[in-house]
């Protein structure tokens, strides 16, 4: 029921036709003009901004407290400035798409960058930033000096459950070239002040039942209810299998509970944060990470024939699988 | 001669006073008294009202990110300053606790407050006016009996003097929100239900229909014009055309739309930005029948005027180049570094995890704002119980403006995509806009706790 104390509809109709439309239109036009003027002149357009690249301090390898400069993480577009740009790009592609490009050498459905996230450019995500200068070095697992070529081939045989590359092969040289470029000419006696892996409390006891619950809720969407991983529409691996014949073998660092937990805590899942290149990590507590890592590392996976040579000098870590 | 300015001034003042008085009286013409008695304690009515409030998505605007449900306070940015949504909890002091059913109905359907002042048309009463009185009664019962009262005073608008006068809004209502009834386009029950949900409570046109000089939607129904739902810009998003052209819903099936409304994703795409919130707060709760009704109705809409029904076929040469490492543009290097790991060399993404970029109508729309905004500020898919996890796109705000333009152009014109190019100034403008835009729930990371899986529509 309409309330009409006056004969308002008629009055309004007459008035709105006679004058108010004019007034209102003027008012609207004025307001719009004012706001357009405010937008276009009031806030003068800022200048385009440059890349805000991550920067980390440089320290000397013998005195980690000495601040001697800054490392600026390079963007791949800078590779074009290098005389061996083609080789560096090739190395980058091999690290990203190892299984597709080197099927003879990769037994698992894995790429180097399945673990070295975001092309080895992220602290705590197993970056390659310091790799070029870190090796050669005596490593506890092998008990002898290992150079970067040998270290990379270690990954091919363990994490990728495959065969080593020839040290002088163009593929190996290309991967080394990418890592050299990523070091950005940091002198040999210096290093970028970052951590390659995060910390988890290694005194925690894993709870595999809880680990399975966490796996199903937060990992299985991508890695599969049976750990089988997911391939893209072309058949290339997106999310690597976490167990089974196509996963990393027991010789891989990722097969060890606490190493895997440290990786998972800081890097997994991907695509769940709004910050960070992969939008990754930092949703699990230490206990969560240890539980879920214990669950998937202890599923069936390929054996590693070379395991008999590991830790020749003892000091085998408690989470070693053999 | 000198008298004329004085006469003009006096006439203007008189005109203003008359306009003011009439403006104060006009809302009376829109309101009506209470025609039906509402039993606000009837459980069935409350439950029905809860569902209708979901279809009308009241929560989207009347709740802030960390605020109490329905307590209002969400800013809507206008060029002259923000206005804020109000507290619609039944708190007697600060909410709508003292509203009679007539007050409630007059506000929702007619845009008139209980003090007879006009509401800003940010409230979609031009759409809600199609809702039948019985549905309003059910919503009233729900809000009065089932919503928790929250004492939270409404925020004053930031509009400057004169712009903050409410009486001119009465003229806006006379001009742009004339009384109208729902007119079904067909006899088909399903399509009629869909048309009603889209035009009425769903108020799809609030975002998806362009606006005229008076901020009015240029069409309120398909019968008005085929510009209805033909796409618009809102909050820095391109609310895409949801009509039948190629860049609209031309490439979508009813089944895909149903999947999208229910779960916020399909095998090739995902809701993001404002639409992610619509799915999260509203459509996921709708019945399969209602969802299918909306999808079926939307697919009857013809292409918008002057829009291509189909785009010419384009051969994908991008995938092979990326496979070969043939980086022939700066955009391709940036894509390979930042995007390829998730969206893949063929731009097809990963089903239900990472949306496809190739063939995704949100990517190759004529206006690039949505692609720009999500690239700069990231976002996440809606959380629904259908999928175990909701994924995000991280923000790439650390890239240079020039590189953002490069990679956006690359993505919009690679594979089979074809779209107009943007330049660096578009990125600059979007960044400046985003600096002022308040964060919403889909701007932040999902809740991954195991308990979170019980959230959302049952």
* Contiguous helical run count of chain A: 11
Helix content of chain A: 25-40%
What's the domain count of chain B?
A: 3
Count of all domains of chain A: 2
**Uncertain segments of chain B:** none
Strand content of chain A: 5-15%
The overall average pLDDT of chain A, rounded, is 85
Structural class of the secondary elements of chain A? mainly alpha
Determine the fraction of residues in helical runs of chain B and give it as a percent range: 40-55%
Instruction: Tell me the distance between the termini of chain B.
Output: 76 Å
**Taking all residues together, what is the mean pLDDT of chain B?**
91
SSE order and pairing:
The complex is a heterodimer of chains A (322) and B (458).
Chain A: H1 8-42, E1 55-60, E2 69-72, H2 85-96, H3 98-101, H4 117-120, H5 131-134, E3 137-138, E4 145-146, H6 148-157, H7 170-183, E5 190-192, H8 208-218, H9 220-223, E6 230-231, E7 237-239, H10 257-267, H11 286-297
Antiparallel strand pairs in A: 1-2, 1-5, 3-4, 6-7
Chain B: H1 3-30, H2 43-56, H3 58-62, E1 75-78, E2 81-84, H4 101-110, H5 125-128, H6 133-145, H7 167-176, H8 189-199, H9 205-208, E3 232-234, E4 237-239, H10 246-250, H11 254-263, H12 273-281, H13 288-298, H14 318-324, H15 330-343, H16 369-377, E5 379-380, E6 392-393, H17 401-412, H18 424-436
Antiparallel strand pairs in B: 1-2, 3-4, 5-6
Helix pairs in contact in B: 1-7, 2-6, 4-6, 8-13, 11-13, 15-17, 16-18, 17-18
Report on the architecture of this protein.
The complex is a heterodimer of chains A (322) and B (458). Chain A folds into two domains: 146 residues, Orthogonal Bundle (Cytochrome Bc1 Complex, Chain D, domain 2), CATH 1.10.760.10; 125 residues, Cytochrome c-like domain (Cytochrome Bc1 Complex, Chain D, domain 2, Orthogonal Bundle). In chain A, 38% of the residues lie in helices and 7% in strands. Chain A has eleven helices and seven strands. With 458 residues, chain B is mostly helical. Chain B folds into three domains: 150 residues; 110 residues, Cytochrome Bc1 Complex, Chain D, domain 2, CATH 1.10.760; 137 residues, Orthogonal Bundle (Cytochrome Bc1 Complex, Chain D, domain 2). In chain B, 41% of the residues lie in helices and 4% in strands. Chain B is built from 18 helices and six strands. Chain B has a two-stranded antiparallel ribbon with strand order 1-2. A two-stranded antiparallel ribbon of chain B has the order 3-4. In chain B, helix 11 crosses helix 13 and helix 17 packs across helix 18. In chain B, 50% of the residues are buried. At the A-B interface, helix 1, helix 2, helix 8 and helix 9 of A face helix 1, helix 7, helix 15, strand 5 and strand 6 of B.
């Amino acid at each position: 029921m309409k309330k009409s104390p006056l004969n308002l509809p008629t009055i309004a109709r007459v008035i709105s036709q006679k004058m108010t439309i004019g007034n209102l239109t003027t008012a609207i036009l004025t307001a719009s003009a004012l706001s357009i003027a405010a937008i276009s002149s009031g806030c003068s357009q800022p200048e385009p901004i440059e890349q805000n690249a991550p920067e980390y301090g440089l320290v000397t390898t013998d005195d980690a407290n000495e601040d001697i400069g800054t490392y600026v993480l390079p963007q791949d577009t800078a590779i074009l400035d290098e005389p061996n740009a083609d080789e560096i790009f090739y190395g980058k592609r091999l690290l990203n798409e190892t299984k597709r490009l080197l099927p003879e050498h990769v037994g698992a459905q894995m790429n180097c960058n399945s673990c070295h996230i975001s092309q080895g450019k992220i602290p705590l995500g197993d970056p390659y930033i310091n790799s070029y200068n870190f090796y050669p070095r005596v490593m506890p697992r092998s008990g002898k000096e290992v150079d970067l070529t040998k270290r990379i081939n270690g990954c091919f045989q363990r994490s990728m459950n495959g065969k080593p590359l020839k040290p002088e092969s163009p593929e190996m040289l290309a991967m080394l070239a990418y890592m050299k470029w990523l070091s950005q000419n940091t002198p040999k006696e210096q290093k970028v002040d970052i951590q390659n892996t995060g910390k988890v409390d290694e005194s925690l006891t894993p709870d595999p039942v809880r680990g399975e619950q966490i796996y199903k809720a937060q990992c299985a969407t991508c890695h599969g209810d049976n750990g089988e991983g997911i391939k893209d529409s072309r058949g290339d691996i997106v999310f690597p299998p976490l167990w089974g014949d196509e996963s990393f073998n027991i010789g891989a660092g990722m097969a060890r509970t606490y190493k895997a937990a440290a990786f998972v805590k800081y890097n997994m899942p991907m695509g769940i944060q709004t910050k960070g290149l992969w939008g990754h990590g930092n949703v699990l507590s230490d206990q969560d990470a240890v539980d879920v890592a214990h669950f998937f590392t202890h599923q069936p996976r390929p054996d590693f024939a070379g395991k008999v040579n590991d830790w020749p000098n003892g000091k085998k870590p408690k989470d070693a699988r053999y | 001669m000198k008298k004329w300015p004085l006469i003009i001034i006096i006439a203007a003042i008189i005109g203003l006073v008359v306009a003011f008085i009439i403006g104060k009286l006009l809302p009376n013409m829109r309101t009506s008294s209470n025609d039906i008695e509402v039993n606000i304690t009837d459980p069935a009515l409350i439950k029905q009202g809860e569902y209708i409030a979901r279809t009308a998505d009241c929560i989207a605007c009347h709740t802030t990110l960390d605020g109490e449900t329905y307590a209002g306070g969400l800013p809507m940015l206008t060029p002259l300053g923000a206005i804020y949504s109000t507290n619609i909890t039944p708190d007697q002091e600060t909410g709508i606790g003292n509203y009679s059913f007539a007050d409630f109905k007059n506000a929702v359907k007619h845009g008139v407050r209980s003090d007879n002042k006009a509401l800003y048309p940010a409230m979609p009463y031009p759409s809600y006016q199609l809702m039948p009185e019985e549905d309003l009664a059910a919503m009233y019962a729900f809000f009065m009996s089932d919503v928790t009262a929250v004492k939270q005073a409404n925020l004053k608008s930031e509009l400057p003097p004169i712009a903050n006068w409410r009486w001119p809004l009465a003229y806006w209502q006379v001009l742009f929100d004339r009384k109208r009834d729902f007119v079904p386009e067909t006899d088909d029950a399903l399509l009629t239900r869909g048309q009603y949900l889209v035009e009425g409570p769903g108020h799809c046109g609030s975002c998806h229909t362009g606006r005229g000089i008076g901020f009015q939607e240029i069409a309120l129904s398909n019968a008005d014009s085929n510009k209805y739902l033909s796409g618009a810009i809102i909050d820095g998003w391109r609310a895409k055309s949801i009509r039948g052209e190629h860049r609209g819903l031309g490439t979508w099936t009813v089944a895909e739309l149903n999947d999208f409304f229910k779960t916020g994703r399909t095998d090739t795409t995902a809701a993001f930005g404002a639409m992610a919130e619509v799915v999260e707060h509203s459509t996921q709760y709708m019945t399969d029948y209602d969802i299918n009704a909306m999808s079926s109705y939307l697919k009857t809409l013809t292409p918008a005027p002057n829009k291509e029904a189909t785009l010419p076929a384009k051969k994908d040469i991008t995938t092979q180049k990326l496979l070969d490492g043939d980086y022939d543009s700066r955009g391709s290097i940036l894509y390979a570094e930042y995007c390829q790991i998730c969206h893949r060399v063929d731009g097809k993404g990963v089903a239900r995890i990472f949306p496809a970029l190739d063939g995704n109508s949100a990517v190759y729309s004529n206006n690039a704002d949505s692609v720009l905004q999500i690239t700069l500020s990231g976002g996440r898919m809606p959380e629904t119980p259908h999928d175990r996890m909701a994924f995000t796109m991280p923000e790439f705000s650390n890239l240079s403006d020039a590189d953002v333009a490069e990679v956006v152009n690359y993505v919009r014109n690679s594979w089979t995509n074809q779209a107009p190019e943007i330049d660096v100034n578009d990125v600059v403008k979007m960044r400046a806009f985003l600096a002022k835009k308040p964060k919403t729930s889909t701007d932040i990371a999902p809740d991954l706790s195991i308990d979170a899986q019980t959230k959302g529509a049952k």
